[in-house]
């Protein structure tokens, strides 16, 4: 199985660790229940980012692929995937290129945590490379 992770997962991990550390330091000085609100506001995202960031990404092999996002994980067998392509999510200033799985059932599944930004008609090279690797793995699957 090959594993691909976004580079910014390290940034999410560090940001989550900083939020969690601040929440712990603030919790040590709490004297009233009302003072717990900032602790919860910093602590919950800190826990999620710290413990989910190391598993962001996609794993793929001969059987299929497994995508792990921020709050969920999904698996698809290659037989359930008709095509892997780049979906463009347009915006005013720049667009986001997202790997998208076109499923045999007619639906799609976008892998948002693996997206990248692009300007104009140019596509994000990292996303295009990842989609090419996934499509090659899908085509080579038995």
Describe the structure in brief.
By secondary structure, the chain is of the alpha+beta class. The chain is built from three helices and eight strands. Helix content is 37%, strand content 29%.
Give a quick set of tags describing it.
single chain, 142 residues, alpha+beta, 4-stranded antiparallel β-sheet, 8 strands, 37% helix
Order of helices and strands: EHHEEEEEEEH
Reported for the largest beta sheet, the result is: 4 strands, antiparallel
Strand fraction equals 25-35%
Residue windows where pLDDT falls under 50 for at least 5 positions: none
Mean pLDDT: 90
Number of extended strands: 8
Structural class of the helix and strand makeup?
alpha+beta
| CA-CA gap between termini | 15 Å
Q: What fraction, in percent, of the residue positions are helical?
A: 25-40%
Number of helices: 3
Shape: elongated
Structural Rg: 19 Å
Strand order of the largest sheet: 1-2-3-4
Q: How does this model look, in words?
A:
It contains 3 helices and 8 strands. It has helices at 9-28, 36-52, 125-140; strands at residues 2-4, 57-60, 64-68, 73-77, 81-89, 95-103, 108-110, 116-118. The strands form 2 sheets. The protein has a 4-stranded antiparallel beta sheet, covered by helices on one side. Strands 5, 6, 7 and 8 form a 4-stranded antiparallel beta sheet that branches.
